[in-house]
Amino acid sequence: MKLNMRLNLQRQVDKCENCGAPLSAGHVYSREINGVTHYFCCSHCADEFEGSGHPSCC
Ligand SMILES: [Zn+2]
Asked: Which site in 11, 29, 37, 51 is 20 to 30 Å from 5, CA atoms measured?
């Protein structure tokens, strides 16, 4: 319930932002990257998205 309310306050995302898999309300992995909350189907997608979208400079 709290999660749903929180999701509704953020922008509406119904797909994993990395692989495009549909997200269900009870199965969403969210991560804040550079101050923006992104939604994924799993932590692996979050890692991949974070890695490819924001390359870390060494
Ligand atoms: Zn995914």
From this structure: 51
